[in-house]
Amino acid sequence: MKNILARGGVEFLAVLLGITISLYIDQKLEESAVVKAERSLLSDLQVSLNQDINYAHGVLEDMRASFEAQEKLIAFPCNDVESLSSNELATLFNNVLRGSVSLFPRYGVYRSLVSNSEMKYIENQELKEKLIDLYDFQFKRYETVDPIITNLYQYGLSKFLVEHFGYYRDKNFQFVETHMVINKDAFCQGTLQKEIMKISSMTGAVHWMLEGIVESMNTVNMLIDEELNK
Q1: Percent of the chain predicted with pLDDT > 70
Q2: 58-68 pLDDT, tens per residue?
């Protein structure tokens, strides 16, 4: 009888041990799957983010070129206007209009994270908060302001340049010199400078906003690196 009980006890312990080991293995496999899912999601997000960072740097470069051209035109002496060639003036106008270039953030991976409830796989709370702030606040705020400055350039300044200087670009965005004129009065009476001033402060505000976005993207990118390198 004792032998039967002992054998039964051993069998019970063996079964219990087997179940425990099985549960432990299942837990480890589940944890491994979560880690793998997190790394895959973060890797995809980083690819998208790096594309946005590179594009944003290009937009900032265009805006800086626009600022430089704006300053030259605002300060351009009336007596020196006649020395300008059509190509020189067109180059300044081209550079000014570079300020209308926009950033178009790639939302695909982030929206997939949110819509499929996959944010739960990201365990770093700081990273989660930075992602939400970047995609749901900073990008959205930028996209609210950006159409305003686009309208100022495309329907304000561009129209003025066509009407007063005959300046326009063809379907390939190439300057067409045929109707270009050097309008000295627009310089000397200050009408050109006023049109430039209308876009200058708004361009500065968007430039400042975009610099903040780039800083946030770099922070998120750094946090993703830390997670992937664990």
Answers
A1: 82
A2: 999 999 999 99
CA distance 228 to 230: 6
For tokens 């190509």, the residue is: 87
Q: How far is CA 81 from the centre of its chain?
A: 39
> How many whole angstroms separate alpha carbon 59 and alpha carbon 98?
8
Per-residue pLDDT, averaged over 127-131, amounts to: 90
Residue range 30-39, pLDDT digits in tens: 444 445 656 7
- 182 domain residue, yes or no: yes
Measured distance CA(87)–CA(13) in Å, rounded: 91
- Counted domains in the chain: 1
Q: What's the domain range around 213?
A: 41-228
In this structure, is residue 21 part of a structural domain?
A: no
Tokens of 145: 């302001």
